[in-house]
Design brief:
This protein has 105 residues and is of the alpha+beta class. Helices cover 33% and strands 33% of the residues.
Length: 105
């Protein structure tokens, strides 16, 4: 995958995460920072960091439960270790950290 294609796909994924956060109704503050870093902050002060990693052509997620890498394949971002889909994994991580059900789609 060329860098420009990766950048477009990663940007679209981060924007989709933002829209999903708006729609989910959970008490999560978030900010998309320069360079494609999306920071989610929860009521207890914990954070989830989602960022694009251009060199690896992956989206990386750092959460209380660990670090995760997602690679684009067949129109979806899939975990490199377990094949989990990005939005399903983020929903699980955000639910764990917020203490409420979070569904990102």
């Amino acid at each position: 995958m060329e860098e420009t294609e990766f950048e477009a796909l990663a940007k679209a994924a981060l924007e989709r995460i933002e829209r999903s956060l708006d729609a989910c109704g959970a008490d999560i503050d978030y900010e998309l920072q320069p360079g494609g870093v999306l920071e989610l902050e929860f009521g207890d002060g914990s954070k989830i960091i989602v960022n694009r990693h251009a060199a690896a052509r992956e989206i990386w997620v750092a959460a209380r439960s660990g670090g995760f890498h997602f690679r684009h394949a067949d129109g979806r971002w899939l975990g490199t270790r377990d094949g989990a889909e990005l939005f399903e994994a983020l929903s699980r991580m955000a639910s764990e950290q917020s203490g409420e059900r979070v569904v990102l789609s």
